[in-house]
């Protein structure tokens, strides 16, 4: 999210030229400093790239900027590219490498870049880049300018840092309970420490504690509704903690506790193949490094997640996720009641995922329920920002069951999910106040082998899995499933495997019914399914699984 500050949002009580800051030390021989070293620096572009005027961000092709940079460049019409460009962290890389190598040309070019940016982007100027004073670039740019100030003593730089501090400290501009707010606090703290301003330092740390207690709950779950952002927040909190220590301040215990609790959420959201489950604004190619995990193989987070697996540290473990909880915000999607399922070393049910933040028809589709494995009430309007409740759960080592309800379509909607381990089976029972259908987005590695009689068989080489659908309460097979792949009007049958990428992938669109039971059986193309009343027996290659669908719409 980007927001450009209005000129009215700047508290202009004291003219900028009258703002008094303690002068930084005189330029000196380079040595590694806390301001210029650390995890805040990007890996790309390198100093060599910057010196040659070639900038590559977000794995997009390099853009040549030349010596006199055009700060209104927007080559890819991409807000994320603009944010990184305007942050000047790539300029900070030059200063960091100057400290490491003593290469004077790096420092000289860094000063040229920063001075040119300040001259070409006056606050509120008519020709200023639209993203120059957006809230996130301000936050990320502040530490880069602080780093430069270790070696450059000039009024234009001191005044610019003063302006950055005023904007960052203005409560009207603060992103409370959000990763951007954390970056704003880090930027303000760095400026406050550099110039010995206790007001800015204390505000940054106290605000940081309040913000992170809102962003990370007592269970260690990030509330931004995209687990991959927990990695970003965890990394940035490490930078925040290091910055607090560099400033000679005490790290608040509440902040340390929240930081230390995040790894359990990150590990829970990581599939057995090492990649994070693509929930919310989370690409499917995010692969966390080793994070500590809880002992429990099943974790329910009040922030709106169920994560379960048969075992830790086993790539053949079965794994599933289910979404529920608070209404949509920040980086979430309309994915409540959505499930994913991984078993026998393969992703079976997945999500359309995240492609970019650009407001395109495809991006809008990925946000909506049709891009997720959810029940849809036919003929009723979807009501976004509706919370979903977890109304019952049963957690055993070999089997777990959960039931969820909401009114996302104006009438009751219910989904009950049962996952059986060892004999791998996932069963999902959908019901509600009217006709419904559900969607099952398959991993793009899977191909549809057959589709008939209410049974869709998918496969990957010799391995097969079956998705069987039954009408309830009759427990009779219901046919008529459609498999859609690569449809564009409207969008359906797509997966985003990585940022700015999408590829066709099969999605099963169920027939319309009043109640549907979907059974996913990994490892076979011929599962035997038999019913006796509301009791269902599924015969898998590993053995039989018996489950019951109650008249109230729950599985056990």
Walk me through what this model shows:
27% of the residues lie in helices and 24% in strands. It has 556 residues and is an alpha+beta fold. The strands form six sheets. Strands 8, 9, 10, 11, 12, 13, 14, 15, 16, 17, 22 and 23 form a twelve-stranded antiparallel sheet that branches. Helix 5 runs parallel beside helix 7 (179-194).
Number of strands: 26
**First-residue to last-residue Cα separation:** 42 Å
Name the shape in a single word: elongated
Unreliable sequence segments: 1-28
Main beta-sheet strand count, sense and barrel state: 12 strands, antiparallel
The percent of residues in helical segments reads 25-40%
Radius of gyration computed on alpha carbons: 26 Å
Which structural class is indicated by helix and strand composition?
Answer: alpha+beta
In DSSP terms (H or I, runs of 4 or more residues), the helix count works out at: 11
Query: Would you tell me the overall average pLDDT?
Result: 93
Percent strand equals: 15-25%
Break the fold down into its secondary structure elements and pairings:
Blueprint: H1 47-51, E1 54-55, E2 63-64, H2 79-87, H3 89-101, H4 104-120, H5 135-149, H6 155-169, H7 179-194, H8 198-215, H9 228-246, H10 253-268, E3 298-301, E4 305-309, E5 319-323, E6 339-343, E7 346-349, H11 361-367, E8 375-377, E9 389-395, E10 399-406, E11 413-420, E12 425-441, E13 447-452, E14 455-460, E15 463-471, E16 476-477, E17 482-484, E18 487-488, E19 491-492, E20 494-495, E21 503-504, E22 507-509, E23 513-522, E24 528-532, E25 535-540, E26 543-548
């Amino acid at each position: 999210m980007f927001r450009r500050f209005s000129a009215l949002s700047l508290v202009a009580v004291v003219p900028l030229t009258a703002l008094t800051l303690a002068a930084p030390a005189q330029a000196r021989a380079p040595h590694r400093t806390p301001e210029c070293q650390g995890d805040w620096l990007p890996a790309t572009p390198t100093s060599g790239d910057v010196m040659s005027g070639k900038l590559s961000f977000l794995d997009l092709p390099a853009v040549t900027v030349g010596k006199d940079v055009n700060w209104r460049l927007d080559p890819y019409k991409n807000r994320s590219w603009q944010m990184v460009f305007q942050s000047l962290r790539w300029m900070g890389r030059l200063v960091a490498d100057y400290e490491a190598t003593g290469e004077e040309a790096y420092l000289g070019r860094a000063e040229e870049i920063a001075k040119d940016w300040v001259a070409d982007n006056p606050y509120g100027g008519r020709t200023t880049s639209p993203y120059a004073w957006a809230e996130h670039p301000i936050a990320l740019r502040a530490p880069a300018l602080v780093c430069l100030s270790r070696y450059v003593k000039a009024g234009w730089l001191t005044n610019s840092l003063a302006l950055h501090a005023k904007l960052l400290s203005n409560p009207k501009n603060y992103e409370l309970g959000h990763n951007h707010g954390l970056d704003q606090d880090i930027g303000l703290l760095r400026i406050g420490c550099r110039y010995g301003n206790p007001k800015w330092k204390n505000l940054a740390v106290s605000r940081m504690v309040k913000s992170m207690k809102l962003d990370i709950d007592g269970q260690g779950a990030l509330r931004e509704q995209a687990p991959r952002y927990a990695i970003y927040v965890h990394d940035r909190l490490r930078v925040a903690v290091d910055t607090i220590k560099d400033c000679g301040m005490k790290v608040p215990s509440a902040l340390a506790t929240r930081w230390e609790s995040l790894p359990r959420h990150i590990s829970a959201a990581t599939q057995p193949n090492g990649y994070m489950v693509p929930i919310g604004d989370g690409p499917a190619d995010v692969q966390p490094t080793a994070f500590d995990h809880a002992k429990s193989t099943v974790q329910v987070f009040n922030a709106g997640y169920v994560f379960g697996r048969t075992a830790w540290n086993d790539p053949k473990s079965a794994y599933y996720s289910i979404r529920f909880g608070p209404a949509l915000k920040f980086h979430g999607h309309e994915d409540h009641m959505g499930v994913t399922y991984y078993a026998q070393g393969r992703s079976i049910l997945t999500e359309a995922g995240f492609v970019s933040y650009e407001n395109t028809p495809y991006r809008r589709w990925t946000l909506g329920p049709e891009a997720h494995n959810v029940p849809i009430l036919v003929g009723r309007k979807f009501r976004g920002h509706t919370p979903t409740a977890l109304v019952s759960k049963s957690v055993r080592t070999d089997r777990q069951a959960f039931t969820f309800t909401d009114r996302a379509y104006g009438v009751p909607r219910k989904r009950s999910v049962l996952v059986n381990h060892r004999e791998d089976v996932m069963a999902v029972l959908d019901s509600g106040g009217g006709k419904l259908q559900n969607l099952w987005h398959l991993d793009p590695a899977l191909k549809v082998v057959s589709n008939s009689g209410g049974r869709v068989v998918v496969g990957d080489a010799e391995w097969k899995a079956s998705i069987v659908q039954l009408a309830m309460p009759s427990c009779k097979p219901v046919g008529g499933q459609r498999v859609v792949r690569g449809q564009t009007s409207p969008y359906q049958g797509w997966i985003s495997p990585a940022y700015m990428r999408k590829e066709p992938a099969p999605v099963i669109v169920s027939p319309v019914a009043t109640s549907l039971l979907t059974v996913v059986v990994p490892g076979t193309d011929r599962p035997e399914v038999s019913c006796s009343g509301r009791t269902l027996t599924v015969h898998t290659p590993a053995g039989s699984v018996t489950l019951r669908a109650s008249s109230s719409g729950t599985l056990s």
